[in-house]
Amino acid sequence: MLQTYGTARAGTAPILKVEDLAVEYPLGKGFLWKPKRTFSALDGISFELARGETLGLVGESGSGKTTIGRAVLRRVAAARGRIIFDGKDITDLAGEKLRRIRARMQLVLQDPYASLNPRMRVLDIVAEPLLVHGVVRNLEEARPRVRELLRLVGLPADAHERHPHAFSGGQRQRIGIARALALKPELIVADEPVSALDVSVRAQVVNLLQDLQQQFGLSYLFIAHDLSVVRHISQRVAILYAGRVVELADREAIYTSPRHPYTEALLSAVPIANPSLQRARKRIVYKSEVPDLVNPPAGCRFHTRCPWASDRCRTEAPPLMEKAPKHFVACWHRD
Ligand SMILES: Nc1ncnc2c1ncn2[C@@H]1O[C@H](COP(=O)(O)OP(=O)(O)OP(=O)(O)O)[C@@H](O)[C@H]1O
Ligand code: SF4
Ligand SMILES: [Mg+2]
Fold it and tell me: Is 122 in the pocket of ligand 2 (CB under 6 A)?
C-alpha cells in the first residue's frame, strides 16, 4: 500500500489522492528514425486532500506546480502513478465518464486578463460551462444562476451585461471564480490565483475563496510561488523542488519549524510584519541554479545548491520520510 502522506482530517475519505505520480513532457519533435525524447517534469508525487481542506503547493518557477494541477484535472497524461478522485481511479478515464468527472473539478487561473475572452459578456463567460454541460438549454435559462453566482462572488447585480475590460483585476478574478463555481464543483485547482493582482486586493480574493470554501465545503489545491501567499488559506503545505515534493506538513509546522534546507530558504524570503523580528532574521540565499530537468542531478535534486550535501546526497535520492508526526521531509541529514 502506497503512503500518500495523510490529510489534515483523519478518518474522512479524501476527495483527492495522488499516488506516485510522474509526468513527462516531450523534448522537441521526434523523428521517424529517432525515438521521441522526454524529460521528467514530475517524479514520485504523492499526497492526499481532504474534503473542505486547502493544500498549498509552493515552489519556484519550473518546479512542476502547474503540471500537478493539470495532471489532477486530467489535462496532461500521467506517465506513472494514479489519481483517485472521490474514491474512484480517474487516471485512465475517457469520454463521457471523464467529462462528468471534469465538471466536479475546476481550475482558477493566475491571470484573469488572459483567461477571460474580452469579446464575451460576463453572462456568456459564466454561463458557458452550464451550456457546455447541458445544465441549461440557453442563455435565458442560465440568467438566474449567473446572477446568483455573481452575487456569491461579490460582483454588482448589473455585471452580467458588461465585458471584462470594464472591471478591475480583482473583479476579473471574481468573474473567473464565478465561472469555476458554475457547475458546483467539489475540487478547485487555484493556480496562482492572486499572483497577478495588486497586493491590496490579494487578501480580498483570498478571503472570498475562504468564504466560498466554508459555504460549499470546497477543497482547494492552492498553488503559489512563495510561502507568504498560502499562509492564511492552507491547512497543509507541500514544498516542491524540481518536480519532487521535498517537504509536506501542517501549515504551522512549515512556518515555525521547517526542516528541509530549501523550505528554510523559501521561508527566509517571506516578509515579517514586525520590523525588529524582520531585522533579526537572516535571509538564506543558496547558490542560484535552475535545476535542469532534462538531466536532473542524481541523488537529491537539491544537492547542487545545498551547503549540507554529502556523498550520499549526490548519489541516493532521499524519500519523503515522516520525521515528526505528519511532518514529511525528503532529506538525508535533517531530523
Ligand atoms: N506543455 C509543456 N511541454 C513541455 N514542457 C512543459 C510543458 N509545460 C511545462 N513544461 C515544463 O515542465 C516543467 C514544469 O513546468 P510547470 O509549468 O509545471 O512549473 P510551475 O512550477 O508551474 O512554474 P511557474 O511557477 O513558472 O508557473 C518546466 O520545466 C516547464 O518548462
Ligand atoms: S538530502 Fe542532502 S543535498 Fe538534499 S537537502 Fe538534504 S542535505 Fe541537502
Ligand atoms: Mg505554473
Answer: no
CA dihedral for 146, 148, 149, 153, sign (positive or negative): positive
Q: What is the DSSP string of 261-280?
A: HHHHHHHHTS--SSHHHHHH
Contact in structure between 297 and 243 (CB atoms under 8 Å): no
- Nine-digit cell string for 311: 556523498
Q: How far is the CA of 69 from the centre of ligand 3 (A)?
A: 9
Homologous superfamily (CATH) for 1-98+186-199+209-335: P-loop containing nucleotide triphosphate hydrolases (3.40.50.300)
What is the domain partition of the chain in residue ranges? 1-98+186-199+209-335, 112-184
Say if CB 65 and CB 223 are below 8 A apart. yes
What pTM value is reported for the model?
0.93
Which amino acid residue places its CA nearest to atom 1 of ligand 2? 331
- Model confidence over 53-86: pLDDT tens digits? 999 999 999 999 999 999 999 999 999 999 999 9
Report which of 78, 65, 75 is spatially closest to residue 23, judged by C-alpha positions: 78
